[in-house]
Design goal:
This protein has 419 residues and is an alpha/beta fold. Helix content is 39%, strand content 16%. The protein is built from twelve helices and 16 strands. Strands 2, 3, 4, 5, 8, 9, 10 and 11 form an eight-stranded mixed sheet that branches. Bound molecules: pyridoxal-5'-phosphate. The site of pyridoxal-5'-phosphate has 14 residues, from helix 6. Pyridoxal-5'-phosphate (PLP) binds next to helix 6.
Length: 419
């Protein structure tokens, strides 16, 4: 039966951005018998030490008197109390904050948190004024593309490019000469470290954005899915920022728990209360089993330790493999530029003046057994035509060293042929 969908139903039943291409990749891999090197995935690698940590705390929970209370009862919308307590204690100690329980909200994955925020702060006000969701630096996380029930609310800004021609590296910076945050802005949102580029906005850039948003009481949502203290997938120094209009958001997905769906928001109690109500209406609360094991892993300090000692070095090393192989294999005469690897689990390659586009390049790479993600899927909200959008690819750091090295060598050959 073909359902008669509402405008919202129609919008929400479509796949956006990278989800669309993931369907094609799934089809490609289905009957492939392992002939592809898959450099497209965003699923974290199962690292033995990390799996062991979650196994240990699961066992502890199973053996404890709390088990029944955790899984056999409903809980508070805000989150499982011992998890909130563990976060308050850890963050107050670690970052010298004065958080109380009212500053915290636990959500089923951080994606849902961005959905609440995009629709609580962005879209039409009761006075029929359109409040924008501003992404200050494009390219950005493709998952922001499907968040808003009011698609014209999403607005992204083109970045400034800092290019190092000699070393074939580049970095995106927010273009403050263009960026507009004012009374028409409902909220600002960005990932730091960034998926897909691995960029980390500098502390002073973040402060500047927060300051721009302050006069109009605009919440600034900082997506720290890859940030410290867990999963600590920053390869460069960065300070997590809190307070005022900032909502600091985290995810335990890249700390080994994507299946359990745990997101964490830390912010002003009034902002948190609005998001909490959204959550109550939508799903009552986050599942409690994952929250209960997370509470133990955070309270003991072990999660932050494993993040620094195991998770970060694992992906940082993978980036070195990408970087060193490309340096050796890519022709120096071609205008290729790798984004500075400052964090996350991806490398981002820009091929300036590419004679084809990113989708055709994706198809060419498939022919030599390498799957990457075409970059144009990572510009949600950027309406301006910009050739750069079609000149980039995202390379996942989740494959083995050998696969990455071979993949990059094949990529270099294909790119040389295309130019
Ligand atoms: C930047 C960023 N934010 C948010 C998410 C969503 O994460 P989750 O809903 O698993 O917490 C992802 C997932 O890959 C991401 O890369």
């Amino acid at each position: 039966m073909q359902p008669l969908l509402t405008k919202i139903g129609d919008r929400m039943s479509q796949l956006t951005g990278v989800r669309l291409i993931m369907k094609d990749i799934k089809e490609t891999l289905k009957d492939s018998k392992g002939q592809y090197i898959n450099l497209s995935t965003g699923n974290p690698v199962i690292l033995p030490e990390v799996e062991q940590l979650w196994r240990k705390y699961t066992q502890e929970l199973l053996d404890s008197a709390d088990y029944g209370k955790v899984v056999c009862r409903y809980g508070d919308s805000q989150g499982y109390e011992p998890l909130i307590e563990a976060i308050v204690t850890d963050f107050n100690r670690r970052y010298k904050l004065n958080l109380t329980h009212r500053h915290i909200l636990i959500t089923p994955g951080s994606q849902s948190l961005y959905f609440y925020a995009a629709n609580a702060f962005g879209g039409y006000t009761s006075g029929e004024k359109l409040k924008q969701i501003v992404l200050p630096l494009s390219p950005e996380y493709t998952g922001y593309g499907g968040l808003t029930l009011q698609p014209d609310a999403l607005v992204a800004y083109k970045p400034a490019l800092e290019i190092d021609e000699a070393s074939h590296r580049f970095k995106y910076r927010p273009d403050f000469s263009q960026l507009k945050i004012d009374e028409n802005t409902g909220c600002v949102m960005f990932s730091r470290p960034c998926n897909p580029t691995g960029n980390v906005l500098a502390d002073d850039e973040v402060r500047k954005i927060a300051t721009l948003a302050e006069p109009d009481n605009v919440p600034v949502i900082i997506d720290s899915a890859y940030g410290p203290p867990f999963p600590s997938l920053n390869f460069t120094a960065m300070t997590p920022l809190f307070g005022g209009n900032i909502i600091h958001c985290m995810s335990l997905s890249k700390a080994g728990l994507p299946g359990e769906r745990i997101g964490i928001a830390i912010g002003d109690p009034q902002l948190i209360a609005a998001l909490e109500c959204f959550q109550t209406n939508m799903c009552i609360h986050s599942p409690r089993y994952g929250q209960a094991i997370a509470a133990r892993a955070i309270a003991s300090g072990e999660l932050a330790e494993v993040a620094e000692a195991v998770i970060r070095p694992y992906y940082q090393h993978k980036f070195v493999v990408v970087e060193s192989t490309l340096d050796r294999a890519m022709p120096a005469s071609l205008p290729w530029f790798l984004h500075r690897g400052e964090g996350a689990i991806f490398a981002w390659l820009w091929l300036q003046d590419l004679p084809t586009d990113d989708w055709k390049l994706y198809e060419e790479l498939k022919k030599v057994g390498v799957i990457v993600v075409p970059g144009s899927t990572f510009f949600p909200g950027l309406r301006a035509e910009w050739p750069h959008k079609h000149q980039c690819i995202r390379i996942s750091l989740t494959a083995t060293d050998e696969e990455i090295a071979t993949g990059m060598q094949r990529l270099a050959k294909v790119v040389e042929g295309v130019y």
